[in-house]
C-alpha cells in the first residue's frame, strides 16, 4: 500500500498517472477501491499512527494525489473525482462519493436512504448510490425493474 501521507509518494504516483492517462486526455478519475479492505494494525502511516488509529483518512490522502496533480495540470478546468470513500476534507477536493457495490434488494435501497442522510450530515454534498445493479441475474424481472426505477 503506498504511503499516501508522504508528498514524495503522491508526486511519484501522480507522475505515473499523468504519463499513462492524463497525457492521453483522460482527465476525470474514478478512484474505485480507494479504501483498504481491511485494517492492518502493524502499519504506521501518519505521524507514526497505526492503521486502526487513523481509520480511512488514507483515502483522503490518495484523493489528494489526484487533486494536487490535476490542479497543477488543469489550472482553469473543473475537477471532479468519483470515490467509494470520503473523509473530512474530501469535499474540498471535489470528491463525489458513491455507496459502493450494493445488492439489488428493497432492503438495501432502504439502507441507502439512511446512508444518504448520514453522508449529507457529514457535509459531503456529492453522493450517489450504486442503484443496486451489482448482483442480479434476471433483467426482465418486474420487481428488479421497479427497484432500479426507484
Automatic annotation (TrEMBL):
Keywords, ordered alphabetically: Glycosidase, Hydrolase
UniProt xrefs under SUPFAM superfamilies: (Trans)glycosidases
Molecular function as annotated in GO: hydrolase activity, hydrolyzing O-glycosyl compounds
Top-rank taxon, per record: Eukaryota
Pfam short name (any one): Glyco_hydro_31_2nd
Domain Glycoside hydrolase family 31 TIM barrel: 4-150
Any one biological process term the GO annotation gives: carbohydrate metabolic process
Annotated InterPro entries: GH, Glyco_hydro_31_TIM, Glycosyl_Hydrolase_31
Family membership: Belongs to the glycosyl hydrolase 31 family.
Name the UniProt record assigns to this protein: Glycoside hydrolase family 31 TIM barrel domain-containing protein
Amino acid at each position: 500500500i503506498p504511503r499516501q501521507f508522504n508528498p514524495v509518494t503522491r508526486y511519484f504516483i501522480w507522475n505515473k498517472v499523468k504519463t499513462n492517462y492524463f497525457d492521453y486526455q483522460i482527465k476525470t478519475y474514478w478512484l474505485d477501491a480507494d479504501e483498504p479492505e481491511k485494517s492492518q494494525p502493524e502499519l504506521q502511516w501518519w505521524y507514526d499512527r497505526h492503521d486502526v488509529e487513523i481509520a480511512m483518512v488514507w483515502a483522503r490522502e490518495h484523493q489528494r494525489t489526484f487533486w494536487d496533480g490535476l490542479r497543477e495540470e488543469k489550472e482553469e478546468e473543473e475537477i471532479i473525482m468519483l470515490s467509494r470513500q470520503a473523509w473530512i476534507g474530501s469535499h474540498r477536493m471535489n470528491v463525489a462519493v458513491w455507496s459502493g457495490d450494493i445488492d439489488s434488494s428493497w432492503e438495501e435501497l432502504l439502507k441507502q436512504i439512511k446512508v444518504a442522510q448520514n453522508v449529507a450530515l457529514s457535509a459531503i454534498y456529492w453522493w450517489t448510490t450504486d442503484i443496486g445493479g451489482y448482483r442480479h441475474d434476471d433483467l426482465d424481472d418486474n420487481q428488479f425493474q421497479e427497484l432500479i426505477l426507484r
